[in-house]
Amino acid sequence: MRSTRGVVAVALLLLLGSGCSDDKSDSASDSTTTTAPVATGPQSYTVVVDGPSTLGAENFVLGTYFPKTLSVRPGDTVTFDNRSSNDVHTVSFGVKPDRSDQPAVILKSGSENPAVFGPCFLTTAVKPAMTSPCPKPAAGTPEFDGKGFWNSGVLLPTAIPPEAGAKTVAVKLAAAITPGPYTVYCLLHPFMESTLQVVGSDAERQTPAQVAAVADSELGKAKTVAAGLAPPAQAPVADGATVVASWGDKLTGINRFSPETVAIKAGQKVTWVGKSTWLPHTVSFQPPFAGPSEPGAMLPAGAKSGSKFAGGVAHSGIFGPTPPFPTPSFSLTFTKAGKYSYACLLHPGMAGTVEVS
């Protein structure tokens, strides 16, 4: 019995010792706190403009900046990176919330407005009558001091070759900028905006890594929404077919034709109807323009809407929601059997075919 009691006593002592040791460990663990990363000194952040999608298959346009809101200090730099596969955007400050002072996107001549599509940095307020290129700054892209009109010009999609133009722009916040909210606008898309919240020089803000994580999360949710947007159903047409030219909601657009291939008989008509609330397009058969930036590319050329067509040039010019675009649709009556391929001059990967029997 003594031997057994001794073993039990030793075991109890070991357990008690182990317990004391665990208590000390827990106590030490409880006293240890994890310190969140702190962003000290000037920071460089990245804001994702739009987002990637499969060219020719998804062709999403995510009309948002990610993250939607970003807190920054004077002296910080924010790089806006257009990651869209198929659409252009701008980064613009100094426009009224209702955009009543924004210059027209397309001029009456059918050309792109250089005050919108080109860089423009003014110390004075923007004016809706602006139609000329803005003076080039003497020392590169100026800092943003919260005043006047600051416009990046177009940031090109990833599908366009790098030599064609910029896909990013860096906004350096001037040391003298007044703290407060500053709205970022895309001049090309009426619902696309975000907020730079300039805080005090000693105020807290997130680290670039934390901002990137928020941007990734918001972008992932936006892509999920886009993937669920089905093309609107169209009623059958007795004398031809209707093709939807993009669809979506205020924040998301699907730059595709639906159906992408339509079959009709000779003598029947195809009508293309824009169903996006903000995206314009063209229907272009053998267009005489290499791209949308060429003079006159936004105006109709060749066979006109409503006319008979047996091949050759038929370029709708820009169409979309009215206003601001001149017409919401385009149509042609096909008189000759064959296969007719076309594309949207504005959006890479957006194409379709008319098969006439």
Please describe the structure with a list of short key phrases separated by commas or semicolons.
single chain, alpha+beta, 2 domains, six-stranded mixed sheet, four-stranded mixed sheet, 3 helices, 15% helix, 28% strand, elongated, disordered N terminus
What report would you give on this structure?
With 357 residues, the protein is of the alpha+beta class. The chain folds into two domains: 44-227, Immunoglobulin-like, CATH 2.60.40.420; 240-356, Immunoglobulin-like, CATH 2.60.40. Helix content is 15%, strand content 28%. A six-stranded mixed beta sheet has the order 2-13-12-15-20-18, with helices on one face. The protein has a four-stranded mixed beta sheet with strand order 3-1-5-9. Strand 10 and strand 11 form a beta hairpin. The chain is elongated. The termini are far apart. The model is unreliable at 1-33 (pLDDT under 50).
